[in-house]
Amino acid sequence: QICNQHNAEAPNLEQAFHSMAQTEPNLDHDVSWFLLPSYWAKTVVAFLSFLCFANSYDGDFVFDDSEAIINNKDLRAETPLGDLWHHDFWGSKLSSNTSHKSYRPLTVLTFRINYLFAGGFHPVGFHVINIILHCTISVLMVDVFSILLGGLQFSNKGRRLNLAPKTSLLAALLFAVHPVHTECVAGIVGRADLLCALFFLLSFLGYCKAFRESKNSEGHNFSIFWVLVSVSLGAIAMLCKEQGITVLGLNAVFDALVINKLNVLELIQKLLHKDKSLESAGLLKKGLLFRITLLMSGGASILYIRWRIMGTGPPAFTEVDNPASFADSLFVRAINYNYYYSLNAWLLLCPWWLCFDWSMGCIPLIKSVSDWRIIALAALWFCLIGLICQALCSEDSHKRRILTLGLGFLIIPFLPASNLFFRVGFVIAERVIYLPSIGYCVLFTYGFSLLSKQAKKKKILAVAVLGILLINVMRCALRSSQWRSEEQLFRSALSVCPLNAKVHYNVGKNLADKGNQSAAIKYYREAVRLNPKYVHAMNNLGNILKERNELQEAEELLSLAVQIQPDFAAAWMNLGIVQNSLRRFEEAEQSYWTAIKHRKKYPDCYYNLGRLYADLNRHIDALNAWRNATVLKPEHSLAWNNMIILLDNTGNLAQAEAVGREALELIPNDHSLMFSLANVLGKSQKYKESEALFLKAIKANPNAASYHGNLAVLYHRWGNLDLAKKHYEVSLKLDPVAPGTKENYNLLRRKLEQLQKKGG
């Protein structure tokens, strides 16, 4: 009957819903919206979700992608797979005090597979997987919303019925095209949120399958197997991102409200009146306590294992990451946390002002009740309290269920990011509201159905919602295009968060990487002005000033940086370089050793220390420092080169040759090493081998005047005067003022003239 009608084509669906109306109100009844068969509904959702983010497929690695992917050694084949289970998301050991403690081994594993199949760091494959994941999740949302909005009903054949096809389609479309999801989809590190959401939803749908055997979801019979599958999928979700564990709490809420039709208000009243008839309240019937015990024990076991793997306490964040959490006053902390919640809610309601980072002064602290922003906080709680009251006190069980599930999906997945249980390392992060947006879509759709019920012109309301969807699609396309490159991403944030020092820092860094130092200085200075303790901005600004020979200001900035953060190894090294340039060698040496003290494995610092020792003619110390650099980083070409040149200049040709051959075995395609070794071999009269290396170096870098000039010297010594003349001329053409080349060329010409005279 009902089930037979529902399994028929779309025109018969309405009859089925009218039959159901006798038992429970149907959301779709008064909604003017598209009624599509399940397959077509999912196709439309998949197409629109793809359309929103398709233009991000060929974007670059941006922002956090550099640390999580490019600089993450866990992606490379030489790193044992077992290391993924002991490292954090960024490739650091979890046991380290400096670890971020974000344990997401399955997400890192997918990055590693991407890297393997792409044959390197090619972002297209990474982006394509993210887009596919979002499309898959959006399609799954049709089923999830049909349960949240229409309830859980099965046919006689055990097939789940979609009792709200119109509203579930609308909610899925709202989810698929929400602009706040752009960071998760267009930013590759957002894969953690996508994978977490995928297994989160599979866990929820798996839990629903546990009741397939009980025809009308009375719940007397249920499958323990599917409950355990749901717990396992929740564990997998947590191994993709931490908030995945919250699905177990949502499953418990769903079980109580939908399967057991528990009236929370009635239960509270019975508890307050010490009524022992809790059986009638639905708490003990249908195996609810047993299933919740399974969920809770599974969740507790997962959290315990996670804590054991983490090894130490929570990560240490700084004040700039989350200033409210460092406030001395409990009142200031509480009021700012709630203000952050209201901003997250606003991003769901009006996702127009989006930013890659909301820290570092982007949102100034509220320190007084006279701050006008208190209004936002009050508005949030006014709405929440109103919804909670309706969810608890409404006589309409259908309304209670939808509102409670909507609030549950809105709030429970957000709890790990709420600062309530532990300090988090951000103020607002758009990626963490990927899952909570499910709750928003439920509440929005339910509100739309209520308005449709009251509205006389339902089509106008439907057109308005279509307009919202269209605007969101365009906003998604615009925002995902901004995520295609760091320059566009960072500049887009200037108008949203002009007080954010990190935004100015990143714009400056991007400009510096492109060689535009003058513009970079401007943004670095602004970053330091906005945050006078921003040591990374000071370090980068000091570096540029050092390269422009503005050594005095560079030293002041770097000295201030290490004063603020005494363990900032990079700033100590750069300070040493500046002091070396100012010929304050003892201070420079001390700065280098301080940097190495704070970062034991620091090859670049050993390299610079070697240069200092070479300037002081402490040749043995220089060679030892460079050797340390190559041990720590075998591909450190500059350190190898300096060792070869120093040994060559001091007459240790045999040792120089040995070092050169060792270096070329490790870095066989480095033309500068070929050139240095060729010089040594030429002096050792190994002309043939020297010639071969010179020619190979020239093939790799044909426009290097010194390569042609030194090959000409080799031919000159060897007696091959015509080839010597040819390469002298090429060298002078490339660099007319090359030191020594013109004199050697003139000597050769005189010698050739003398030979011609003798021959004549």
Automatic annotation (TrEMBL):
Q: Name one Pfam family in it.
A: TPR_19
Enumerate the spans annotated as DUF1736 domain: 313-385
Main subcellular localisation: endoplasmic reticulum
Q: In which pathway does it act?
A: Protein modification; protein glycosylation
Enzyme Commission number(s): 2.4.1.109
Enzyme group, top EC level?
Answer: transferase
* Top-level taxon: Eukaryota
GO BP annotations of the record are: endoplasmic reticulum unfolded protein response
Arranged from A to Z, the UniProt key words for this protein are: Endoplasmic reticulum, Membrane, Repeat, TPR repeat, Transferase, Transmembrane, Transmembrane helix
Alphabetical list of PANTHER family matching this protein: PROTEIN O-MANNOSYL-TRANSFERASE TMTC4 (PTHR44227:SF3), PTHR44227
Its protein name is dolichyl-phosphate-mannose--protein mannosyltransferase
Per the record, the gene is Tmtc4
